[in-house]
Amino acid sequence: MLRKEQNDLLTQTGPGTPAGRLFRSYWIPALLAEELPENDCPPVRVKLLSERLIAFRDSTGRYGLMDEFCAHRGVSLWFGRNEDCGLRCPYHGWKYDATGQCIEVPSEPEASGFAGKIKLKSYPLIARGGVLWTYMGDPAAAPPEPEWEFITVAPAQTYTSKRVQESNWLQAMEGGIDSSHVSFLHRGDLNSDPLFKGAKGNQYNLSDSRPVFEVVESPGGLYIGARRNAEDGKYYWRITQWVMPSFTMIAPRGNHSVHGHFWIPIDDENCWAWSFDYHPIRELTPAELAAMRDGKGIHVRTEPGGYRPIANKDNDYLIDRAAQKAGRTFSGVEGIGMQDASLQESMGPLVDRTRENLVSTDNGIIMARHRLLKAVKALVDKGVVPPGVASEHQKVRSAVIVLPPDQPFKEGAKEAMIARPSVAPASV
Amino acid sequence: MRSESARMTTAAELRFRVQAPNSIGRATMVIALDAASEPFVGRLAQDTEQWHRATFLKAAGDETSLTGFDGRQRRLRDEVNAADQVIMVASAGGQADAAAAIGRASSDRRVTTTALIVGAADASDAEISKTLAQLRPWSLMVVIANSDDYVTDMMTALRV
């Protein structure tokens, strides 16, 4: 249960809101690089943190992200002509560069300097690891550029997709750290999904549907350990990483790639679910890439030309009751990503957390909310930089490890939970 | 199905969610396992209005009883029988061996146990390990919290 005022505080991320200020402390993923594939390509409308923006790539390859609407009479610059190092409004020809600076107002004499007095709000947009990142906070407080391992490995080792999720970011993110649902909702996929099957660890999962959990605060967020019995009295640990505010990294399986998510607010009722898979020491195979593009693992198949899932709430997620009854899927929805999204969207765009009845195994979620609330308060009251901004908080990995029964996983998996170039992930 | 009168949830549909209560209160037993955690649990015990469904106790040094913050002895079995959930609080590095008897009694009654290690920010790995080893066998969930205020947030979230 979360009080209404706390729920509002964490779920509202528009300009001027406390949680909005928190998100504006970080570099966040804004677009896939493929959305702006070449210089002078068509601009793309982007809504982030309840702000309507337009992204474009100019004639020199420079990326711009700025207020979507022309300063003249409010026309959407999505209709704009991307030409000669700027985006020109088709209505009266006002032209803007990648910083949002107006550089031409054809109806005014050039010597008047009028164009120099017009500037749209803009944000930096940088390409890293096939993703375009933006920072929407105070330019004077810009943090170091993102250092997540999935964007620093070679391009052939990593794959990122995104999909629209029609729910608030928090209920989506909370699904990412809710380790206890895996044994139910996704049980049908552990032995069939090409990006999961074959790992020895799957047998521990399937033979013990009641793991014991430990939640430990980390410098950037949380470590959430799920413990099951292994051989010789040892424990099999699956350790999820959560880094504030919305990065989650799922424990890997065998030699499969490592994967995780970012949950980024579009507005208060929709978010982007970013999904990445990478392997720290090898290239992804053609079969793996094909499976990811086909919506396997944590990825989903999206509508042609867009990022809305093919299975969505308008078609009841293509629910297959026969598959549910036969046990091929637990909820009747196909694919791990859509199994999560369908249930999270079914809560409504913004779930009423005053009506929840949380239980002991929800402590990961409770602790994440606790840390978010504290970080927001410290940021707003005292200007404290929140966890997750520092580069070292981003150089993390999820891990799977077998440890003696009396050893804290934080200690036993200490090295495994740090991202180190050319070091294999800890996995079973 | 075509016969259904409601489709997937929208913001507009959400206002039709039934507002009747969907749960009744859970009786919660909060136990300080060691001397260092007693003052903290004792402070919680004083807020009888906020935590009116909770019983606050401390380990008594034997395997069959607990002590109330009013100084009265209580039978462990009776207290566990009356509880829906048990929260055990221990300080990092503290002596948490009472967890075994409490955990055993809770397990017999199928009562959920949560263990909280407080004060972890100032504790060494060795101290945390020592306390963890005593709590782990008897807890469905273990939380290692850097700050004590997590406990009140957790109790609120669990509707204590």
The percent of residues in helical segments of chain A reads 10-25%
Distance between the termini of chain B: 40 Å
Helicity of chain B, as a percent range:
25-40%
Structural class of chain A: alpha+beta
Count every beta strand of chain B, where a strand is a DSSP E run of 2 or more residues: 7
Number of helices of chain A: 12
Rg of chain B, rounded, reads 19 Å
Q: How does the helix and strand content of chain B classify structurally? A: alpha/beta
What percentage of the residues of chain A does DSSP assign to strands (E)? 15-25%
Counting DSSP H or I runs of 4 or more residues, the number of helices of chain B is 6
Largest sheet of chain A: 8 strands, antiparallel
- What is the topology, as strand order, of the major beta sheet of chain B? 4-3-2-1-5-6-7
Strand content of chain B: 15-25%
3D architecture notes:
- The complex is a heterodimer of chains A (428) and B (160).
- With 428 residues, chain A is α+β, with helices and mostly antiparallel strands.
- Chain A is 21% helix and 24% strand.
- In chain A, the strands form 4 sheets. In chain A, strands 12, 13, 14, 15, 16, 17, 18 and 19 form an 8-stranded antiparallel β-sheet that branches.
- In chain A, a hairpin with a 2-residue loop joins strand 17 and strand 18.
- With 160 residues, chain B is an alpha/beta fold.
- Chain B has a 7-stranded mixed β-sheet with strand order 4-3-2-1-5-6-7, sandwiched between helices.
- In chain B, helix 5 links the parallel strand 6 and strand 7.
- The longest helix of chain B is centred in the middle third of the chain and has 11 residues.
- Chain B is globular and about 60 Å long.
- Strand 13 of chain A pairs parallel with strand 7 of chain B.
